[in-house]
Amino acid sequence: MTQKNRNILVWHSSQVNAEDRKQLLGHTPVTFWMTGLSASGKSTLAYALERRLIDNGHLCYVLDGDNVRHGLNSDLGFSSEDRTENIRRVAEVAKLMNEAGIIVIAAFISPYKKDREQALKVIGSEHFREIYVSTSLAICESRDPKGMYHMARTGRLLNFTGVNSPYEPPLHPDLQIDTDLCSLERSIELLQGFVIPAVKPQKLHIKKTKDHI
Questions:
Q1: Cβ neighbours, 10 Å, residue 26
Q2: Among 23-27, 54-58, 207-211, whose mean pLDDT is lowest?
Q3: pTM for this model (two decimals)
Q4: Which of these, 118, 99, 122, 119, lies nearest to 107 by C-alpha position?
């Protein structure tokens, strides 16, 4: 879009604000950004967490790396530029969903630190929590459910994270889980223990005063 066309755009404000949606849904909308290598367990954990949150009455939705490439990001490849654009679009979608009051669980390799920082900037620090699924490359490669590590090792798959494309792990994630060391049930317990306080609405502290007659 050219700057000339951008100048004709006007922001339209809603008659419904964030507090209205909190009151309606009973939680604070947050994006839980799950990053880690392919086969680390991100999607498995994301969908199990979604099930738990829905069962507990919280409106939430998983944005999954493979799923969004079937539609929204079907025009993108796996170059560093396309990966950056992939994360940018997802962050914008997550922001809109948070503004609608929905808890978002984003499961993406998101290998570059700068892209995750940009996602944080787009979504806002108040609504963004980074979860590092830190399962090691050796364990992820031993799982290899789609055979992609094997294809990358044999030169049939380029730009594959961990083999011929870099992964920059978070240095200070809000939560870190290694699915080789923790069972699925234990991992979900850790996630739920982290997520529930984060989405619990802050209670207003009203100072009480004595009535004067």
A1: 14
A2: 207-211
A3: 0.89
A4: 119
CA dihedral over 90, 76, 65, 177, signed as positive or negative: negative
- 133's enclosing H/E stretch is strand 128-133
Tokens 């080789």, located at residue: 180
What token pair was written down for 155? 């030169």
- Torsion 42-44-50-53 (CA) sign: negative
> In which region does residue 124 sit, left (phi positive, over 0), alpha (psi from -120 to 50) or beta (all else)?
left
For the sheet with 128-133, list strands across it: 60-64, 103-107, 31-35, 128-133, 175-177
Residue carrying the six token digits 């997802």: 90
**Active site residues per annotation:** 110
